[in-house]
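Input/output pair, single chain:
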Amino acid sequence: MENQIKPLDPVAIDLGGLSIKWYGIIIAVGVVVALLLALRESSKRGLDKELYIDLLIWAIPISIICARIYYVVFQWDFYKNNLDEIIKIWHGGIAIYGALIGAVATAIIFARVKKISFWQLADIAAPSLIIAQAIGRWGNFMNQEAHGAETTRSFLEGLHLPDFIINQMYIEGTYYQPTFLYESLWNVLGFIVLLILRRTKIRRGELFLSYVIWYSFGRFFVEGMRTDSLMWGDFRVSQVLAILLIVVSLAIIAYRRIKQNPPYYMADKFGNVPKRK
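Output:
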């Protein structure tokens, strides 16, 4: 049976010398979905919709560059002897944490230039970010990457996964854990949690920080299952960063509540929270 299993074609459209891969299409879908959700919520919160479009124009290229830099830094043993490979991003090698760092840094500067609250900007974007990540992981599925350790078909069937996922996890004669799926499902659940949280009396900034905590917590465990982790000595970089982000986020929430008394997420410019209908 295994000899008849063929992986899904990672190329969606082949135009002679130009090929468009499913990875790029899936990432683009994630970005569009994220933008539409952010635009809808920003109008409810009284922000100009154009803000997020303007932000994306800057954030997307900067995030890609930062994702590549992050990856190269922690794979420097290879790249220091292959400097020409650094710019060849089409050969693979980007890291989501690098992209998030680039996006947050861009948003902070953008908010200051536009003279708006970074926390409000980030809160509105939080559900968009996590659902985009959930969608984006399916790009890894198409590329048969970001998987876990070796396993058996019977184990995967025991998870009640559809055949197309099980078959795609059959790589060069071996079945692997679909860690891309575990993270995607965790992110979908996180998306639902964030939508619920933003309807409560949560303080401004805490929705975004809740996203950071939720994603980092799940990523810590998923990263421990992966076989392609970026390493920092004996430690997995993403696990170290996940712990750091959780601690810092909790500390920021506590500090802001004690020292700054931030307004509620749902509050209008006068600090009033509308009653739920």
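Strands lie at 11-15, 18-21, 150-151, 170-171, 174-176, 231-232, 235-236. The first strand starts at residue 11 and ends at 15.
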